[in-house]
Design goal:
Elements (H helix, E strand, L loop, with lengths): L2 H22 L2 E11 L2 E10 L8 E8 L5 E4 L2 E2 L8 E9 L8 E10 L9 H4 E5 L4 E3 L1
Parallel strand pairs: 1-8, 7-9
Antiparallel strand pairs: 1-2, 2-6, 3-4, 3-5, 3-7
């Protein structure tokens, strides 16, 4: 293998390692459970703040889609404070929607995230949704 090919492979490896670190340094939000509660559906979200920064507030804008792909509900979820390097569970009720009727949740945006500093990060870009439920959670 020539020196140019070796250098190219090394750069590709560094790029992949950097991408993996960037993802590890973000905020993971897992839709862990959907549970019926009266006429509502209770959603359990697991937050992993893998950054060195605390966020308060941290507010999500999730949109729920039904089994036909039609928007069923849009809510605002206040998930903060999110301490640096901490995993936490937040739950919220989705009134008027059955859990079985939710097939997809879109993280439309992170509406608010404050680090207390002068410049604020793009929290929507650094947030990675996932799901353990039958409903997918995407961005």
């Amino acid at each position: 293998m020539n020196k140019l090919a070796v250098a190219g492979l090394a750069l590709a490896g560094l790029a992949l390692a950097g991408a993996a670190r960037a993802q590890d340094d973000g905020i993971r939000v897992e839709l862990n459970k959907l549970e019926p509660v009266g006429a509502a559906c209770r959603a359990y979200l697991v937050f992993e703040n893998r950054t060195g920064t605390a966020f308060d507030p941290f507010k999500l804008d999730p949109v729920m889609f039904d089994t036909d792909g039609v928007i069923a509900k849009r809510v605002a979820v206040a998930a903060g404070p999110l301490p640096a390097g901490k995993t936490s569970v937040k739950l919220f009720d989705i009134d008027g929607v059955s859990c079985g009727g939710i097939r997809r949740v879109l993280l439309n945006s992170v509406m608010a995230c404050d680090t207390g500093g002068d410049s604020q990060p793009d929290c929507t870009a650094m947030t990675a949704p996932s799901s353990r439920t039958e409903a997918t959670f995407i961005k």
